[in-house]
Structure formats: structure tokens, C-alpha cells
Specification:
Elements: H1 6-17, E1 21-28, E2 34-42, E3 47-56, H2 61-79, E4 87-96, H3 106-118, E5 123-127, H4 131-140, H5 143-150, E6 153-161, E7 167-175, E8 180-188, H6 192-207, H7 218-234, H8 238-250
Parallel strand pairs: 4-5, 4-6
Antiparallel strand pairs: 1-2, 2-3, 6-7, 7-8
Helix pairs in contact: 1-4, 3-6, 3-8, 7-8
Length: 255
């Protein structure tokens, strides 16, 4: 393990001890408010499940622990799922065909799609920006986990936008080692929520997983992205902070 980052060493220890998840808490120094970053990785699936930020120090340890557990509980339940009941989806990204001086739709759609897929119980999202981490985790993981990740559905595609009318056409490509299928999604720039709902439904259908039980709450999602934006801003991850802010704006947040 020589030369690995602290997170990598922690993952290795958790793997060796047979833990379900690794929880890394890190103090982020920022003026005038310090922040606490909380990152949870499923050892069995070798996938990052949550990354949260909280003001630090907390107003009360008991209240903080209660809030933290409430935030992590859905992902903790996911981490306990056996691999045969789990599905990895690698988001390679949807990209705009044409550029414009307006914010590109890809900056809204990709983070929102990942966020929604992550909330479906049997789906584990492997994001492209985490590929280096995942490659290392595959080395440390069992053969069954390697097979789980290598069998992931790959999702990518293109976004074609008419900048005069606001009409949007998305060509979604889904691939596994065995098969591939294309989906066409249509809508408008003003209704990103509907576009992402269609994308989520297409991926769920392709994967054979129903998402009918999930009711998407735009206001709640927007607040979630605003909170993430604040965390990334205070950790000086300005690009991610802007991405989270833009996504919240697309969901209707104006405060």
C-alpha cells in the first residue's frame, strides 16, 4: 500500500476487516466557517455512496449524529445488498453537440441524473471522475466485486438543443458487455426535471429495475444541491460548486 492516499489505506483496512462501509470524516479549514466533509464508500461494491458537508464544529454532538445517521441510512441499507441484487451503472456523461454562450444542458442533466439513479435502491453509480479511485478499489476488492464493476451498464449520449425554440433531443446510449440499446428523449430546456425523469425511466427499464415507487421532490432536490454547492465552495472546489448551483437553479431554486 506504499504511496497510496489516506482514503486508499482506509479502504484497504475496511476491506481486510470485512466492513460494509468506510466512513471518512475530514475537517476542511475555511474562513470564517470550518466544514466537516463526510464520505461513505461501500466496500462490497467499491462505489462511493455519499459525500456530505456540515458546518464544524457542530452545535451539538447528539444532534449532529442524529442528522448524520438520517442522511446516511438509505445508503447504509444499499451497502448491505448482496452483489447479485445490485447493478452498477457507469455514467460516462451526456454531452452537448453544439456550444452556446448559455450554460450547457449537460451541466444540469449529468449531476441530476446521477443523483436520481443513486436514490434507486439496487443501483450503484460509478461516475467517470471517480474512475482512478475505482480502479484502485478493484485491485483491493474480491473477484466478485471486480465482476460486478466490469459488468456495469455504460451510459452516455448526446444532447441536441435548438437555442431558438428551446426544444431538446437527447440520444441516450446504454451498453453492457452483452448488448446495447439507444433511447431518444425529447422535451424542452425549461423542463429539465421531465428530461431527467425520462432518462431515469429509460435506464431503469433497460436494467429491469422499477423506479415507480420513487416520487421526485424538486424542492428537496434543489436544497440538496445547494447544500452540496456550499460544501464544495468552502473546500475550494469551485467547478463542482458551480455545477451544483446550476443544477439547483435548473430545479427552480432562486434563493
Amino acid at each position: 500500500l506504499s504511496g497510496m492516499l489516506a482514503d486508499d489505506k482506509t479502504f484497504a483496512v475496511g476491506y481486510l476487516l470485512g466492513a460494509d462501509v468506510i466512513l471518512v470524516l475530514d475537517e476542511v479549514k475555511s474562513e470564517p466557517q470550518k466544514w466537516l466533509s463526510v464520505r461513505m464508500t461501500s466496500v462490497r461494491h467499491a462505489v462511493v455512496l455519499e459525500e456530505l458537508f456540515f458546518p464544524f464544529p457542530t452545535s451539538g454532538l447528539d444532534a449532529f449524529c442524529t442528522t448524520l445517521i438520517e442522511n446516511l441510512n438509505p445508503s447504509l441499507r444499499k451497502a448491505k445488498l448482496p452483489l447479485e441484487q445490485s447493478l452498477a451503472i457507469s455514467i460516462l456523461g451526456l454531452r452537448n453537440i453544439l456550444t452556446h454562450d448559455r450554460i450547457m444542458l449537460e451541466e444540469y442533466i449529468n449531476p441530476l441524473l446521477s443523483n436520481r439513479l443513486n436514490k434507486i435502491h439496487h443501483i450503484y453509480v460509478v461516475e467517470r471522475e471517480r474512475m482512478n479511485e475505482i480502479l484502485l478499489e478493484k485491485i483491493l476488492s474480491k473477484q466478485s466485486t471486480k465482476e460486478f464493476l466490469s459488468g456495469a451498464i455504460l451510459a452516455d449520449g448526446s444532447i441536441e438543443e435548438n437555442f431558438q425554440t428551446g426544444q431538446v433531443r437527447i440520444e441516450l446510449r446504454l451498453r453492457t458487455p452483452q448488448a446495447a440499446k439507444n433511447y431518444t428523449i425529447e422535451g424542452t430546456r425549461e423542463d429539465v426535471d421531465s428530461l431527467v425523469a425520462q432518462l431515469t425511466q429509460a435506464i431503469s427499464t433497460y436494467a429491469g429495475i422499477s423506479d415507480k415507487e420513487i416520487v421526485w421532490d424538486k424542492e428537496s432536490e434543489a436544497r440538496e444541491f445547494i447544500k452540496k454547492a456550499e460544501g464544495w465552495l468552502h473546500t475550494k472546489q469551485y467547478k463542482k460548486a458551480l455545477e451544483m448551483t446550476n443544477t439547483a437553479w435548473a430545479l427552480g431554486a432562486r434563493d
